[in-house]
Design a protein that fits this description.
single chain, alpha+beta, Serine Threonine Protein Phosphatase 5, Tetratricopeptide repeat, Membrane-bound Lytic Murein Transglycosylase D, Chain A, two-stranded antiparallel sheet
Length: 416
């Protein structure tokens, strides 16, 4: 049976009614003000997201290969922003795009803005290095050197590599090859392993090292041998533990040159080692100072992977005959001979390693830098001939999957 008397609802107080009306009005006013600001372009979202969205748009355009559109998107942002987190990356991107497009003046102005207006930005040393490189490329050598030297003296170590390489390039142009080599080596040590700055420095250092050992000019590392009675290039090479190729190149003579008693021959003592990095198809030629030169190579394709392990160079051959399995000997110069102009067999030092691997030339240079061989290391012809003239028989070789820079100096030492 339902109750006879229903419980009466509690009535709201006058205070609550007034407060509710006020709250609704405030919300309405605030909503109107917020909507008005957003639709007029002044909302918080518009202020905070426009610039990052523009940067993202520019990056997306770059990925699509639309460089001109990316430049158009960046230009107003770079010109109008005073926020370092927005302006600096925009200016850096714009400078790079302008430089690629040949508008070097605009690129220089963007980089100058970073260095002048955003001095506290961590990107300032990088901008300075790019600015100096543009000056260098424009032939403004002294201005570029002044900036490079400022970076070298004042920037954090990780930013010094491009500046050191810039100073080294000028030394190289001035014929100061030994000084340039040392600067490139310092740049490589300052840079992060395998970074663009490191790669630039390593390749330039290798070029300088080759120029020094093959040059007829004496260097801080070179020595002079005086020809004695009964000497020839072969016997001198054995006596000095160097190659005939190094002696001929460094002294501007041929292999069959008749030597004179008392003749002075320049040579550079080297105790080389070779490390082959399988994962990246690279050969590192090492000496007592570390990396002497880096080469690209082709290595074993899937199913014929180059075997990891320790080897040593066997009896080297110029213009080798290729004894192709199932086909017989293929003479040098024959297009079917895949050994090219040089063959350096890799003799196993550890048990269980294959006995048919080696380092040789690549008649097809497009196969270098990829997994394209049946297990051997193939090199560009001019580079395998260079390496052939540098390393002696029994030079240690080690094939590793990945080179760890921390342990590089310990590799290929087991049989040295």
């Amino acid at each position: 049976m339902p109750p006879l008397i229903r419980q009466q609802k509690k009535q709201p107080s006058i205070f609550k009614i007034v407060f509710g009306i006020f709250a609704v009005g405030a919300l309405a006013y605030g909503g109107y003000w917020g909507v008005t600001r957003i639709f007029s372009g002044g909302g918080v979202e518009a202020v905070q997201t426009t610039a990052p969205t523009t940067l993202d748009t520019a990056r997306a355009l770059l990925e699509e290969g639309k460089s001109n559109e990316a430049r158009d998107a960046l230009r107003p942002l770079a010109a109008g922003s005073t926020d370092a987190q927005i302006a600096v990356p925009a200016l850096m991107m714009l400078a790079d795009l302008d430089a690629r497009a040949g508008d070097r003046a605009s690129a220089i102005e963007s980089l100058k803005r970073i260095t002048a207006e955003f001095a506290a930005s961590p990107e300032r040393p990088r901008a300075l290095a790019q600015y100096a490189r543009l000056l260098e490329d424009d032939g403004k050598t002294q201005e570029a050197l002044a900036v490079y030297n400022d970076i070298r003296a004042n920037a954090p170590a990780e930013f010094r590599a491009p500046a050191l390489s810039g100073i080294a390039r000028q030394a190289e142009k001035d014929g100061k090859i030994s000084e340039a080599r040392d600067l490139y080596a310092e740049a490589a040590k300052s840079a992060t392993w395998d970074s663009p700055a490191w790669n630039e420095a390593i390749d330039a250092m290798g070029r300088a090292n080759i120029a020094l050992v093959f040059s007829p000019n004496e260097t801080p590392e070179s020595k002079v041998y005086t020809v004695e009675k009964g000497d020839n290039l072969t016997s001198i090479g054995i006596k000095l533990n160097t190659t005939q190729g190094l002696l001929t190149r460094a002294n501007g003579i041929e292999a069959d040159t008749k030597l004179s008693l008392g003749q002075r021959l320049k040579w550079t003592p080297k105790d080389f080692r070779i490390v082959i990095e399988r994962s990246k198809c690279r050969i590192f030629l090492l000496d007592s100072n570390g990396i002497f030169k880096r080469y690209s190579c082709g290595l074993g394709k899937p199913g014929h992977e180059t075997t990891l392990g320790v080897f040593k160079i066997g009896n080297k051959e110029k213009d080798p005959v290729w004894h192709k399995p199932g086909e017989g000997p293929i003479p040098p110069g024959d297009p079917r001979n895949l050994l090219g102009s040089r063959w350096m067999p890799m003799v196993p030092v550890q048990e269980g390693l294959p006995k048919d691997l080696g380092i040789h030339g690549a008649p097809d240079p497009t196969t270098v830098g990829s997994f394209s061989s049946n297990g051997c290391a193939r090199m560009k012809m001019e580079e395998v001939e260079e390496l052939y003239d540098l390393v002696v028989r029994s030079t240690p070789v080690q094939v590793v999957e990945v080179v760890d820079p921390a342990t590089l100096d310990t590799l290929a030492l087991a049989q040295a």
